[in-house]
Specification:
Helices cover 80% and strands 0% of the residues. It has five helices and no strands. The longest helix is centred in the N-terminal third of the chain and has 48 residues. The termini are far apart.
Length: 132
Amino acid sequence: MSVSDEEQFDSLILIALIAFFGWTYWQKKNLATSQVETAKVQQLMDEANASADNPNALSSVTASADKIVKDDIDSVQAIQTQFVLAKLAYEKQDYAAAEKALKKVENSKVKDEGLIQVVKLRLADAQLAQNK
């Protein structure tokens, strides 16, 4: 191997190492972000359960849910928060509020067709309850 070949080989190894460690860092960062967002949804669910007897339960969790949706409308967590809001509204027979919550994420770009279909099914249920 000539000096030039060795330098090219060393450069390739360096590029491979940089790519590997960059990929690993990116995956860990995405995992940490996802875990934080999931924890926010869990906190929202706990808040919703704790305030179930409160007549203003829907309005007390809406601000938290809106923040999660605003942060990333195309996330699974955004859809989960709207499911929580729709459930609270549905329990109070406020089908318009349930519809409004689900419409926020109806056109989500989440790459989970099953989840999107559940949103549409629940939205249709809320609309049916309103005779729409």
